[in-house]
Every structure is written in structure tokens, then in C-alpha cells.
User: What shape does this take?
Amino acid sequence: MTDPLSLEALLEALRQAGLPIGITEAIRLQRVFALRPGSADDRRLKSILRAILVKGDEDDAVFDRVVEAWLARAASEVEARAQRPVEPVRRPTKRSWQ
Assistant: This one.
């Protein structure tokens, strides 16, 4: 199962919506994110993605719809993960025979 926050999940959603995204675009995005562009807010992230993925005016509406939905799911997922209780780390107990 693909993590809903992953770049792969977003690219797959964009492909399913009809955007022509190939290996070249995926590699470019991986290179950009490997540089760690800082704590990008949604607007900056969208701008980075648009520069690499949108090839013409006809792609704009599809891109906006899919990316907005992905960002909303990502925000929900981040919130859900933050609400999950953290399990304490179990430390080995000393055995009586030791």
C-alpha cells in the first residue's frame, strides 16, 4: 500500500486524472525534493509541482483539482498521525536467573 503522503501517491493520482507524467518528471521531482526545499507551505509546494508537471493550459484545471485533493488528504493524514498514541518503548527486563 502506498503512503497517501508520498510523492508516488500524488503522481499516480495525476496520471489517473489524465496528466502525462513519465519517468522524467518523477526523476526531476525526486531531485528537487532531495535538495530539501525547506518547509514548503502548500502554495510553494504547488508552485514547485506545477513547474515540473504542467505542460500546457489544458493541464491546469486537472492539476489544481488533483493537487488540492491530495493536499487535503495529506493534511487529514498528518492530523490523524499526530493523534495516534505513542507506544512506550519496552525495555528488556532482567531475568531472575541472570
Remarks:
- The two ends are 43 Å apart (CA to CA).
